[in-house]
Structure formats: structure tokens, C-alpha cells
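Late entry, written up from scratch paper. The run itself happened at the end of the previous shift, but nothing got recorded in the book at the time, so transcribing now.
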Amino acid sequence: MIPRYSRPDMVAIWSPETRFRIWFEIEAHATTKLAELGVVPREAAEVIWAKGDKAVFDVARIDEIERETKHDVIAFLTHLSEIVGPEARFVHQGMTSSDVLDTTLAVQLARASDLLLADLDGLLAALKRRAFEHKMTPVIGRSHGIHAEPVTFGLKLALAYAEFSRCRDRLVAARKEIATCAISGAVGTFANIDPAVEEYVAEKLGLTPEPISTQVIPRDRHAMFFATLGVIASCVERLAIEIRHMQRTEVLEAEEYFSPGQKGSSAMPHKRNPVLTENLTGLSRMVRAFALPAMENVALWHERDISHSSVERMIGPDATITLDFALARLTGVIDKLLVYPENMQKNLDRLGGLVHSQRVLLALTQKGASREDAYRLVQRNAMPVWRGEGNFRELLKADAEVGKFLSAADIDEKFDLGYHLKQVDTIFRRVFGQS
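Output as recorded:
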């Protein structure tokens, strides 16, 4: 991933130095258990740990060896033998390359998940704070982009909170599913290595032993993981688009924070553009794009091939780094979001009370009008207001046919904004567990 959209903690997980350190730990833990089982000398395992644990693995040297061997794990093992000495011959006993590569990827994805979960926690905290701040701030609800009925801005943010809470639950499940260890040897039969080694390495690395591998960890696990990241990205985009729409000049109900010295346009000095949420829309597209190749990786030839390998070298870092950045950016947007209640009220009033049309419709049916007649009467008085002709409440009062069912006082009662918001407390309790 490019540095512009990267944060250092997540980048570090995918660095060559981190990868080789995990490779070493897998090999060293396996050797320790093999020593306990009497397969290799205990002294050799101790030397491997003593020399390797303090070593700084030379990435350039490993790359140099790989240019000759054309095999990354062999290149690392060769470099490790340069550090450890003769005892290195006891490393990788009964193991295959996928044992190291797949288990390392599991460690990296688990660590990446922990950072993403922390990101989600930060976003949820910001959403909760702003939701309660604007719990009763009225704003027009829209369907198809058209004025519908009143909601509150707090409800919009509560919806996002519930959405990202589900995302968090999904990621916890995806982390559990991806965090498996395979030390089962060629074609996964444990023919040359005891299953106890796998159990030991898994425990040391905070993983779960893979129940059955085919030499590689089954890729349905990875497909679900990256699909989960894609769903989270879609939720990022949904909220970003909501803010982008609310920032339009004709709407201007909320707006990204515009910092001192910030410039919106190279040509038009007056511009204040929703650049952060537009950026989040683009980044979300990228994260979702990584889900499809992960799903295509599920179908490998027989017990293994490496068609998945090149894909995962890209999507592992790129998907997690991009989503980490996006979640942090969205948290900042929500935390500093400028909210304009006056404009929200102005937009609510823009259609002269048409937002109460359903209440009038229902009142007519409850007073004896058929639903078809009630709909016709309400729509007949609504359409002139839609064209900017007259006031909805007054037109209803002047309609003799409406008057057969509803008095002026009945009509006035249906234009109470608070009626639409009476269940906000109930919804907040459902979402947050409190009012």
C-alpha cells in the first residue's frame, strides 16, 4: 500500500523484518517441541533459540539467496544456518514450507485484526458521543433522496453505531476463524512430524491447531476474513456517502471540519469540499475489491498449489492497511463533524408540512374514509404545495371533502413534529442499552 494511506503500526505487521521474525519463532518453537519428543537434541534447540532470538535477520541477504534458490523459505533457512551454525540442521524437521507461510499469515492477520478492532472501538466511541449529542436534533428523513418524514441526526448516528457494532462482531468471528496453525508436513498427514508439535506451536503463537490441512490451511477461512473486511468497508462507504450528501450546498446539514489554512479548490477559493468522505468512498472500493480474489483462492489443485500465494502477498497487507487507515479517517470525520441544526430545521420546513402527510392519511381512515379516498384527498392537497403553491395545512382545512372527516383542530394536531420523534428513547435503548 502507498504511504499516503498507511499507518505505521499496521505497516509494521507486514514488514519483511516482522515476517522473518515470525518464521524464526515458528521454526524455533517447533524445534523445542521436537527436542522434548526426543527427535532432535535438546542442546541444539537451545542453541537455535539463543542465537536466533538475538539475531537481526538480514533482508538483503535473504533476498540475495532467494535470487539463486528461487525459494523464499529455503533462502531464510540458509540465512538462519549462517547465524546459528551446525545446529541449524535440526530446524524444519518434518515440516514443509506451507507450515511456515500459512502459520505466519495467520499470525499477521490476527495481529491486523486486533488493530482493526481497536479502530472500530474508536469509531464506535465517536459515533456514540455524537449520537447522544444530537439525539433529539430533528432532521428530515429521505427515501430515494426525497423528503420523507422527520428523524433525528442522533438516529442517523445510532444507525451507524449499530452497523459498526455488527461489523465488530463479524471481525471477532473472522479473527477466530483465521487464527489457525498448520504444522502438519507435506500434504498434511503428519507423516514426518508429531501433531503435538503443531499443538505446541499454536499455543505459543496464540493460534488454534488446524483440524485438517491439505498441506495448506483451507482458504475458505481467508475468503471469509477478506469478505468481512469488505463488509466493513461497505459500511464505511455508506456513512461517508451520507455525510457527502448532507454537505451539498443545497442541503448543508452537516459538513466535514475545514481546518485553518485548508484549501478546497485550486481555482475557486470559496470551495469547502467533502474530500475526506470522498476519499473514504474510494478506499472502500479497494478493500471490497480484495474479497473476490480471496474467494477465488479457495479452489486449489489437490492438496496444494501456490496460485493463492501471489494474491495473498498483495491483499493481506493492502486490505488491512487500507481499512485501518479508512477507519481512523472516518473516526476523525465523525469526531470533528460540523452539524447545522438550523439548516436541518430549515430543510424540514421547506415543503410546508408535507412531511406530515402520512398522519393525515391515517387520521382520515380512522375517521371513516376509505384508504383510497384518504390517499386521493391528501395527495390532491399535497401536489400544489410540491409545486410551491400554498400551505399544506391550510389547503387541507379549506378542502370541504376533508372537512367531512377532520376538523381544523384535528388537522392541526397532525402537524406536531414531536409525534414523529416520540420513540427515539426506545430506539436508543435498543442500540445503546440506555436512554
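The first strand starts at residue 138 and ends at 143.
(Scratch paper discarded after transcription.)
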